[in-house]
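Minutes, project check-in
Item: structure for the 231-residue chain
Input as provided by the requester:
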Amino acid sequence: MTNEKLKATVLTILRRPGIWKIGFQLGALCVTGQRYAMVARAIADGSIECQSVDKFESQGPDALADGMVTEARYDIKNNAMLFPRADYGNSPMEERAIFHETTHAMFDLFANSHDDRTLAIDDESAAVLAEALYLRLCDRPVGGFAMMIEGRGEEALKLADKMMAETGDFEKDKRTYFLRPEQTQRLREEVAKDWHYTKFIGSDGLATDATRVQYIYDGVVKCYSCWVHGQ
């Protein structure tokens, strides 16, 4: 069942005006302000829940690199964002984690089928890049996001700044920004380290997830079908 305090926090974050400017595509994954608005609507009507949990279920010993811990998670099966406590979201790091998970919720909400598969390294790279754009466009504190030199946060911010410079902060050019594979190479490499994906450099010179780990989204049928039919 949705925790109303968590729900209010998540909705506050998703309703920041700068989010409307976001618009990019990384591989097959599309991230836009309008889609975040639809996630907010799904959360508001209970189709996607916000829950606090005492403990996160283990995803296996290789789920994260050493030193990384799970702060939040989107539960695909139950259409729920999970957090460790009801007052989660009071620090810059927690705020970023919430926005990261709403990006995964978006991919589930807009799944192309009941068995929509996406390569995990692309999925997480898109969510980290979305965090960077959220910080820039909503003027939020960077905090420890870029703490590691050449880490995922720094690489995401570099790419976000490049995208914003080319589009005039997504105002001069409001079209969806299509990322070329070579633009995301460094970000993918850092994501592969942090999420413990075994990577190698392919013949195209790009970092590739050798394990071929995939996230499988099954959609959020309850409310999405209503939107499609205008109910």
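Outcome recorded: The longest strand covers residues 23-26.
No further action items on this chain.
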